[in-house]
Amino acid sequence: MQKEKVFEVHGSLAKIQCALGCHDKLCDDLEIVREMLDNNIDCHIPTSLVPICPVCKGKMEVNLRKDAFFVEDDNWHNLNDNYEKFIIENKKKKLLLIELGVAYNTPSIIRFPFEKMCLRFKDTTLIRVNDKYLDMAFEIQDKAMLVHDDCGSFINGLLNS
Ligand SMILES: [Zn+2]
Q1: pLDDT digits over 104-154, tens only?
Q2: How far is the centre of ligand 1, averaged over its atoms, from the C-alpha of 4 (Å)?
Q3: 70 CA distance to ligand 1 centroid (A)?
Q4: Centroid of ligand 1 to alpha carbon of 18 (angstroms)
Q5: Phi, psi of 113 (to 5 degrees)
Q6: pTM metric for this prediction
Q7: Residue 101: which of 139, 144, 155 has the closest Cα?
Q8: If you measure from the C-alpha of residue 24 to the centroid of ligand 1, how many angstroms do you get, rounded to a whole number?
Q9: If you measure from the C-alpha of residue 140 to the centroid of ligand 1, how many angstroms do you get, rounded to a whole number?
Q10: Ranges 5-9, 47-51, 74-78, 143-147: which has the least confidence
Q11: What are phi and psi of 36, to 5 degrees?
């Protein structure tokens, strides 16, 4: 897999950030989590292993878009630029958007923009894979496909077909 082409628009469980987003640097958490797992006793870890923000000395948090403090670092912005460039360069070609398991926590990030691209770009098709939220904007129902499945099952099906 080409990691530089994977844009984790909602962040990553593999990175942590300041819980209050006081600065825009992310930290890989693999070693931190591994050390916590190695030292946990009945699901408790020593206080000394709780990550502390190097700037404000507050709590750290996984880098997930779940509140107003989500950190978009330089890498996030570079990947966002690549994504936008890809869309601009390909919007007049046949474009297939595959949306996997997107709900309504932050529909303005993936769900609604995909529907908007499907509506506006003549040769764009949307495949929405979801086991719970299968609704679709009426205006694109003839250009979109709904797949009632969970993402893991859908991907395994693709890989094994
Ligand atoms: Zn901080």
Answers
A1: 988 999 999 999 999 999 999 999 999 999 899 999 999 999 999 999 999
A2: 27
A3: 12
A4: 4
A5: -60, -35
A6: 0.85
A7: 155
A8: 9
A9: 43
A10: 5-9
A11: -65, -45
